[in-house]
């Protein structure tokens, strides 16, 4: 009889606790911590509220009225501790006396704790606190199941209490709720991660258009000084206030180059002819409002809608000697600039990249054979006397060019810089001077045909080993906008004393043939001994062959004019 009574009580207790769990809308974990559904310990702990069942054994009549006290008066249950020792006699039914208190002491540890939840069922009589509600909205599946046990949905079989205690097993309901909760949590997590990604992308986009305040201040100051100067540079000509304001907050996507990186050489050197450089290849696009008109002006009308033609060296045997008698031309040189694909230009290069590029160039050139075979000489460790001799022989670039220094093109000097030349010193390669590579073919006299043929052979051989940076519209890309397209510059060191007696006149005549007049040692230098460096000016909108032919035709006409004076 006692076993039957206990079983009835245990089932009733389980129902009450489950009902309280769902109706309070609280997390299940705290209520299940007491584990009342475990049969073995339940038989020992359940008798704590033993007075609850009406059909209790006759020996305990005093405990009968206790199970149904008024909800607000749970105290009487606690006030009658005398029946509590009874559970200790449960394992031995013959002994019904409440005296064996010593045996109850080892059991109460797990037994006494469970009675604490017994007054819990009375809490639902008062409205649950708002703080006890779940902090996040329930998914649709749980909402339709009406987990708070109120206003049951008939279409779903009534409320949860009815479904659980009306014949359905709790085990069948809880897994469904758990699965729905997992789906909801997974969805919320994915949404949260996506929001983080979107925030990061937004931050990156904002950063792409963010220029440091110090950079802006320097830009404003430099622009004001340039505008007030008498500079004749193309930078001043085309950097209007409107263009300046439109570009001053822009940066290139990959290397974050600013307008200051583009124009700082021209801002510091008002005697510049051009005044701008491209810190990376993307600058030609981001700062196109400034680059395009300068390119059009310098390269003889190459508009922003024009496209540079495909590379063509033409028939190398076309050209002959521009000065067969060796009266005027001292030496002839044809060179081209190239940038190694995958690297930015000077201002954005790290010292490690300089050294890496030097290693690639050195190993590549060491594989050349025949007339091109030679040796690479790094500037690092080169004796000053040797370096100066190479500069005096017009083989090596000089250090300390203020225009390049202002453009941040001389950082980490001399790391990563070097020169290669063949045994006859008629073929040279400069590594990381102004451009990544300057490929040069040169010799004494005016035999342009032989010099051009050597250059074409060298460029084709190097390109087989090192990929070059190229743009469909602008052609080969380099640091300076004057050196785009073919990047070909064919030049002579020439003495024309009659024409040179009036340099302005010389420059006027040269311009008619698209030629540029420079000092003996190149741009920004003076003529030494009446010797000028004269070369083709245009490099864009025409092929390599056409660029060299412009120089060939122009020099031929200048020599004729000098002879006629």
Automatic annotation (TrEMBL):
<feature type="binding site">
    <location>
        <position position="438"/>
    </location>
    <ligand>
        <name>ATP</name>
    </ligand>
</feature>
<feature type="compositionally biased region" description="Basic and acidic residues">
    <location>
        <begin position="94"/>
        <end position="104"/>
    </location>
</feature>
<feature type="compositionally biased region" description="Low complexity">
    <location>
        <begin position="27"/>
        <end position="47"/>
    </location>
</feature>
<dbReference type="GO" id="GO:0005524">
    <property type="term" value="F:ATP binding"/>
</dbReference>
<feature type="compositionally biased region" description="Low complexity">
    <location>
        <begin position="145"/>
        <end position="159"/>
    </location>
</feature>
<dbReference type="InterPro" id="IPR022415">
    <property type="entry name" value="ATP-guanido_PTrfase_AS"/>
</dbReference>
<feature type="binding site">
    <location>
        <position position="394"/>
    </location>
    <ligand>
        <name>ATP</name>
    </ligand>
</feature>
<dbReference type="GO" id="GO:0005615">
    <property type="term" value="C:extracellular space"/>
</dbReference>
<feature type="binding site">
    <location>
        <begin position="331"/>
        <end position="335"/>
    </location>
    <ligand>
        <name>ATP</name>
    </ligand>
</feature>
<keyword id="KW-0808">Transferase</keyword>
<dbReference type="Pfam" id="PF02807">
    <property type="entry name" value="ATP-gua_PtransN"/>
</dbReference>
<feature type="compositionally biased region" description="Pro residues">
    <location>
        <begin position="48"/>
        <end position="75"/>
    </location>
</feature>
<dbReference type="InterPro" id="IPR014746">
    <property type="entry name" value="Gln_synth/guanido_kin_cat_dom"/>
</dbReference>
<feature type="region of interest" description="Disordered">
    <location>
        <begin position="27"/>
        <end position="161"/>
    </location>
</feature>
<dbReference type="Pfam" id="PF00217">
    <property type="entry name" value="ATP-gua_Ptrans"/>
</dbReference>
<dbReference type="InterPro" id="IPR036802">
    <property type="entry name" value="ATP-guanido_PTrfase_N_sf"/>
</dbReference>
<dbReference type="GO" id="GO:0004054">
    <property type="term" value="F:arginine kinase activity"/>
</dbReference>
<feature type="domain" description="Phosphagen kinase C-terminal">
    <location>
        <begin position="328"/>
        <end position="565"/>
    </location>
</feature>
<feature type="binding site">
    <location>
        <begin position="489"/>
        <end position="493"/>
    </location>
    <ligand>
        <name>ATP</name>
    </ligand>
</feature>
<protein>
    <recommendedName>
        <fullName>arginine kinase</fullName>
        <ecNumber>2.7.3.3</ecNumber>
    </recommendedName>
</protein>
<dbReference type="GO" id="GO:0046314">
    <property type="term" value="P:phosphocreatine biosynthetic process"/>
</dbReference>
<comment type="similarity">
    <text>Belongs to the ATP:guanido phosphotransferase family.</text>
</comment>
<keyword id="KW-0547">Nucleotide-binding</keyword>
<keyword id="KW-0418">Kinase</keyword>
<feature type="binding site">
    <location>
        <begin position="518"/>
        <end position="523"/>
    </location>
    <ligand>
        <name>ATP</name>
    </ligand>
</feature>
<feature type="compositionally biased region" description="Pro residues">
    <location>
        <begin position="105"/>
        <end position="127"/>
    </location>
</feature>
<dbReference type="InterPro" id="IPR022413">
    <property type="entry name" value="ATP-guanido_PTrfase_N"/>
</dbReference>
<dbReference type="GO" id="GO:0004111">
    <property type="term" value="F:creatine kinase activity"/>
</dbReference>
<dbReference type="InterPro" id="IPR000749">
    <property type="entry name" value="ATP-guanido_PTrfase"/>
</dbReference>
<feature type="domain" description="Phosphagen kinase N-terminal">
    <location>
        <begin position="215"/>
        <end position="300"/>
    </location>
</feature>
<feature type="compositionally biased region" description="Pro residues">
    <location>
        <begin position="82"/>
        <end position="93"/>
    </location>
</feature>
<keyword id="KW-0067">ATP-binding</keyword>
<dbReference type="InterPro" id="IPR022414">
    <property type="entry name" value="ATP-guanido_PTrfase_cat"/>
</dbReference>
